[in-house]
């Protein structure tokens, strides 16, 4: 990116998107959570399932929020973000999902994000459970 102010603006808007994604997860709002993915996004979930398109990603989260992640809380912490330009970023995100019973599940998501007039959206992402 060409300037420090642009970097800071892009980083701030990306942080805001991730905070919104946390809120959507933490309220079990799969519809809203799905909006953080591009219409034609791809997502590889923790178990290796490949979801193609926002609708499939949303529907997968509807199932997850009704099943294994019911009542869970998500914490997203960027560990490394590289801004390719003002509208593209590669991000490595540390995730902690606190299950309803209080146990923690740790994972890492690597994603390519695009910023449009509507904000940041994941174009593709892959989550791997760790630990």
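Sequence proposed for the structure above (131 residues):
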């Amino acid at each position: 990116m060409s300037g420090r102010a642009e970097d800071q603006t892009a980083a701030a808007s990306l942080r805001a998107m991730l905070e919104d994604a946390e809120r959507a997860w933490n309220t079990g709002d799969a519809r809203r959570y799905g909006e953080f993915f591009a219409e034609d996004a791809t997502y590889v979930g923790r178990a290796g399932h490949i979801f193609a398109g926002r609708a499939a990603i949303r529907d997968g989260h509807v199932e997850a929020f009704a099943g294994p992640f019911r009542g869970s809380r998500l914490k997203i912490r960027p560990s490394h973000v590289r801004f390719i330009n003002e509208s593209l970023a590669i991000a490595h995100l540390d995730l902690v999902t606190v299950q309803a019973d209080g146990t923690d599940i740790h994972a890492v998501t690597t994603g390519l994000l695009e910023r449009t007039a509507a904000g940041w959206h994941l174009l593709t992402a892959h989550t791997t459970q760790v630990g």
